[in-house]
From TrEMBL:
<protein>
    <submittedName>
        <fullName>Bet v1-like protein</fullName>
    </submittedName>
</protein>
Length: 720
């Protein structure tokens, strides 16, 4: 039996002959002579779905980033050079995992090649010159002939970098070839090395400005500036964030307002639409937007280069209410440094040479410099994000971007700067199309047993196995009711259903070692009812309502967890969730939470929110980051004989109240998921488990009923 060199879950994605695309998980196994993949982790003599014999003629081709079903994946193609039709496509959600697989497969190919040469067989190798990775500029052939090793001893195995650097994109990381671009003549470059001088040190960054070496430059030729800083994170983690254009960018890029994909040219080149957020007299200055080509590559030294250059596109014309700025040169260079005190360190360079256009303020030097510094400060944002958040050190997946080519901007009316509304309001229709689509299996006519492209596959397998072995006591739900009905149809309105635990990621068994997270899996408690209440005052201790689900459960000997989300206003509202279980296990984290004091509860109660359906601005405002409720808002705990009620006062936090005001105004258009759990803070409490999860769909404000609570004191309140 062949020795297993490497194995694990990877993504299979592509397009069927009938035109339907698919994306799903497959378990790949790399042996000393064979690469194969299975529908599940193989046990015993299982026949693989597909195999590829590995020999010295095989190659691993880098296909770059591809968008499938709303996810961006890093694609590899393994094929035999003599039988190019015989190939296996595989992908990963993070570039680090793809690079590991690439290295392992190439190692096997090299061993097979060495074995063939030792046996006297002739193998035709292919090579990669440093020019492929942006480290040299001499011409090269895509396929070298046998014997080239003797004349080019420094060549290494060739790796495809998409279609190469586009002619229109200026590579400022190749210093000997760079110069000052003249916008009026794109082919004209002053053939001199760029020279920089330090103009400022702020936010822990060194800010450089290019020294102009020409006697005369057109007014439209802006000055290039760059920021240089050090971030304590891996190159891959930083690269993942730099490539993202979703809500994660708001956490580190203060100049970002909105971004979308216009066209995917190849795995390394894409055309993007990008809206900038400036705070320089916003009442009088028109906002700026961009349409530009983005190219990226990974160099042999482990560094990443991301390059920008503006260009026109038929599907990305001028947008109402925006001035189209022009990037003459820009991008990021992300280079690894030696680690310090066991922490990875990376140098990040961010360069921008941009003409902000405009007939008046675009020529103000103060506006140009302020705007450039605003963009360059994103390097400091990256540094602070990684220094303050442990979660980011998990290699992030590269989020997909909403496709602009298939949507239209809703707002066609041009406003004046003083009356122009927040630009995001015109983007609702651009994001209203669902990202969910059927994931078909190219190897079978039946659907996959599981579809988890947005989650770590190893975690999915472990949780699925746990769910098959765990049996939950069944509870008769027919006797429980709330004034909001349950309806499991995705298209239903003004209703609730139980949200699948696999929609959420929680801390795994080894979280404190490697920050790994797993699927939420099965809930510990059953959601039995949802109430939507209103009153003239805030509604506390709603479990005392006669006939409510908590009281019915108590009569049946069940323990209830009541979560009361309190919405302030001229009319007060409460969304109440009733979770029940037959009993609390002594010594369990749930039992300790129920019987603990308020300080313990506030430090442990965690909410994971999500907005699967809703406007873009709401989804970005709510996000999906876990939150300790007791640290963010005021929580009041009421411990009854057979229940624990948690009154969550959303109005106690300015930030939460602001988000609530945004959400409440469009609540009828939203589908919201919420998961509740007790955070595990020690290894023996891992892995975490969800207490329960709920999905509320298109709730009507008019559906709320009067609570009927009496002005009785909270005699039941205690901390036990």
């Amino acid at each position: 039996m062949s020795k297993v060199v490497y194995e694990g879950w990877m993504v299979r994605c592509g397009r069927r002959k009938i035109g339907r695309s698919f994306i799903h998980m497959r378990y790949f196994v790399l042996e000393t002579r064979v690469l194969a993949y299975y529908k599940r982790k193989p046990q015993g003599n299982v026949v693989p779905l597909k195999t590829l014999v590995i020999d010295g003629n095989c190659r691993v081709e880098d296909r770059g980033l591809k968008t499938h079903h709303g996810h961006m994946v890093y694609v590899l193609c393994v094929y035999n050079k003599k039988e190019s039709h015989h190939r296996i496509m595989m992908a990963a959600f993070n570039i680090q995992e793809a690079l590991i697989w690439k290295g392992k497969i190439e190692l096997v190919i090299d061993k097979q090649q060495d074995a063939s040469v030792g046996n006297g067989n002739k193998v035709s190798p292919s090579f990669e010159t440093p020019a492929d990775t942006g480290q040299s500029t001499f011409p090269y052939d895509h396929e070298n002939h046998p014997g080239d090793e003797a004349t080019h001893p420094t060549l290494v195995r060739r790796t495809t970098i998409g279609n190469g650097l586009p002619d229109s994109v200026f590579d400022w990381t190749r210093e000997p070839d760079t110069g000052i671009l003249i916008q009026d003549n794109m082919d004209q470059i002053l053939p001199s090395k760029r020279h920089w001088h330090l103009v400022a040190c702020q936010n822990g960054l060194r800010i450089f400005e290019e020294l102009q070496q020409a006697d005369y430059l057109p007014w439209s030729c802006s000055t290039a500036m760059k920021a240089v800083g050090v971030v304590e994170a891996t190159c891959e983690a930083i690269f993942g964030l730099v490539m993202s254009m979703d809500g994660t960018r708001f956490e580190w890029d203060c100049s970002f307002q909105y971004g979308s994909l216009v066209e995917e040219v190849d795995g390394h080149t894409a055309i993007l639409y990008h809206r900038l957020q400036f705070d320089w007299f916003p009442m009088f200055v028109w906002p700026r937007d961009l349409c530009y080509m983005r190219y990226w590559r990974r160099n042999d030294d482990g560094s990443y280069v991301v390059l920008f250059r503006s260009r026109e596109h038929d599907n990305c014309g001028p947008q109402p209410g925006f001035v189209r700025a022009h990037i003459e040169s820009g991008g990021f260079k992300i280079s690894p440094l030696k680690s310090r005190n066991g922490k990875p360190r990376t140098q990040v360079q961010h360069l921008m040479q941009i003409d902000l256009k405009g007939w008046l303020v675009g020529h103000f030097s103060s506006f140009r410099q302020h705007s450039l510094l605003h963009m360059l400060n994103s390097v400091a944002g990256l540094r602070e994000l990684f220094s303050q958040t442990d979660e980011v050190h998990v290699f992030p997946r590269i989020p997909a971007m909403a496709n602009m080519a298939s949507n239209n901007v809703a707002n066609k009316e041009i406003k004046t700067p003083g009356t122009f509304p927040h630009p995001v309001q015109s983007l609702d229709q651009m994001h209203s199309a669902s990202r969910h689509s059927v994931m078909m299996d190219e190897d079978s006519d039946e659907e996959d047993d599981y579809h988890i492209p947005a989650l770590e596959p190893e975690e999915a397998e472990s949780v699925r196995c746990e769910d098959e072995t765990k049996q939950t006591d069944q509870i008769d739900l027919s006797c429980f009711s709330g004034n909001i009905r349950r309806d499991d149809d995705d298209k239903s309105r003004d209703c609730w259903t139980i949200s699948d635990g696999n929609n959420f990621r929680i801390r795994g068994k080894t979280f404190f070692k490697d920050k790994s997270k797993i699927l939420g899996g099965k809930h510990l408690m059953e959601l039995i009812a949802v109430d939507w209440l209103k009153d003239t005052k805030r509604m506390d201790h709603v479990a005392r309502r006669q006939g409510c689900a908590a009281q019915v459960a108590s009569d049946k000997g069940l323990f209830s967890l009541v979560v009361n989300l309190q919405v302030p206003g001229s009319t007060h509202y409460s969304m109440v969730f009733y979770f029940v279980t037959k009993h609390l296990v002594n010594g369990s984290l749930t039992q300790r939470f129920a019987d603990g004091d308020d300080e313990f509860r506030n430090s442990r109660l965690k909410l994971i929110p999500s907005v699967p359906k809703g406007s873009w601005i709401v989804r970005q405002s709510v996000g999906s980051t876990p939150c300790l409720l007791g640290k963010a808002v005021d929580c009041t705990y009421v411990r009854g004989p057979k229940y624990l009620e948690i009154d969550v006062d959303i109005g106690s936090s300015t930030v939460a109240n602001g988000v609530l005001g945004l959400v409440f105004g469009v609540i009828t258009t939203l589908v919201v998921d919420m998961a509740f759990l007790v955070q595990a803070n020690t290894e023996d409490e891992l892995p975490e488990q969800l207490l329960g999860a709920v999905r509320v769909s298109h709730i009507e404000i008019s559906s709320a009923i009067v609570s009927g609570l009496q002005d009785t004191s909270h005699s039941a309140k205690s901390n036990d």
